[in-house]
Specification:
Blueprint (H helix, E strand, L loop, with lengths): L2 H21 L9 H24 L3 H19 L6 H18 L1 H24 L1 H7 L2 H8 L8 H24 L1 H4 L2 H23 L3 H34 L6 H34 L6 H21 L9
Helix pairs in contact: 1-2, 1-3, 2-3, 4-12, 5-6, 5-10, 5-11, 8-10, 8-11, 8-12, 10-11, 11-12, 11-13
């Protein structure tokens, strides 16, 4: 091989392939159909040049140059297509909803524990007000029973949104994660405490004839927020169950298997809390919005979220 002649003859193709690689580095969509055909042709030809140089030349620098160029072109040509944000979001939603359905027994158990405690604590607070006083701080009880919260300006609403967005997801994550170290008892305790708080508050509001005001004030943000608590509780119960009843598996293996779904459930609960934060910050406690409007929004949320959890991705093969 006359190396100088070979380089002079083939170098234009190498430069052209390099230029196409530069243009297609981010995505091949930047190349036209003709450019893509030329890219493939040049890739094949330069691959042949590399094979010829490897067998007939001792020029290590030339071999390295062609090897790098062919490897770069191969990586661009055969790399997996990048998911768009929309596709990534759709896949994340599908994973979340399928995991919730797969772990529906723990979802129902978590909901039963939370709402069951609320239903039991309401009549208990009626019969034993002293117990209710221990559960519900007096300042909070007084604030709610007045049926009127101070008006919030835009700055205060933004501040409360920031607080809810940072605090509530953290509580949801703790509710689920604490199960691994307590065999699920920590999760049961947190769900029961929150359910009891809601039940006692409902009893107090019923006593002063403002139960409707309570639900109109908490449900607009409460639909996603309480859903987040229940989903995080389901994650904790799943982890606790894996430790208490691992079946024929070792506890570590059972915990690992449950942990994969628990992570998805905890992530889902955090997202639900984040969705609730701006609603709570700007809408639920906005005194300028009538309770009837808040109640209508809450009903609409319930319908839409139920349709999402029940119907979304039903025709898609479940993610294993």
């Amino acid at each position: 091989m006359n190396e100088a002649t070979f380089v002079d003859r083939r170098e234009p193709d190498w430069k052209q392939l390099t230029a196409l690689c530069d243009r297609g580095e981010v995505t091949l969509k930047t190349l036209s159909r003709e450019d893509l055909k030329e890219f493939v042709r040049l890739y094949r030809n330069v691959s042949g040049d590399l094979a010829a140089v490897r067998t007939s030349s001792t020029n290590a620098a030339l071999v390295q140059f062609l090897n790098d160029l062919v490897a770069r072109a191969y990586g661009i040509l055969y790399r997996a297509p990048r998911n768009t944000f929309g596709k990534a979001l759709s896949q994340a939603m599908l994973t979340a909803v399928q995991t919730v359905r797969r772990r529906k027994a723990f979802i129902f158990a978590s909901a039963a524990l939370f709402f069951g405690t609320a239903l039991l604590s309401a009549p208990l607070a009626e019969a034993r007000p002293d117990i209710g006083d221990r559960v519900l701080p007096k300042f909070l009880s007084d604030q709610w029973t007045k049926g009127q919260f101070p008006d919030r300006g835009a700055g205060q609403s933004m501040m409360m949104w920031s607080f809810y967005a940072s605090n509530n997801p953290r509580v949801a994550l703790i509710t689920g994660a604490v199960a691994a170290g307590t065999f699920g008892l920590g999760t049961v305790t947190i769900l029961s405490e929150n359910g009891m708080l809601l039940g006692v508050l409902a009893a107090r509001m019923a006593d002063v004839g403002k139960l409707g005001y309570l639900f109109a004030s908490i449900l607009p943000h409460g639909v996603p927020e309480l859903s987040g608590i229940i989903v995080s509780g389901a994650a904790g119960l799943a982890l606790g169950w894996a430790l208490v009843c691992p079946g024929r598996r070792r506890r570590g293996l059972a915990l690992r298997d449950a942990g994969a779904d628990a992570i998805v459930l905890l992530s889902t609960s955090a997202v639900l809390m984040l969705i609730a934060a701006p609603i709570e910050g700007f809408f639920s406690f906005n005194q300028g919005i009538p309770s009837s409007v808040k109640a209508a929004v809450a009903v609409l949320e319930i319908v839409l979220w139920t349709a999402f959890w029940v119907g979304y991705g039903n025709r898609v093969q479940p993610v294993s």
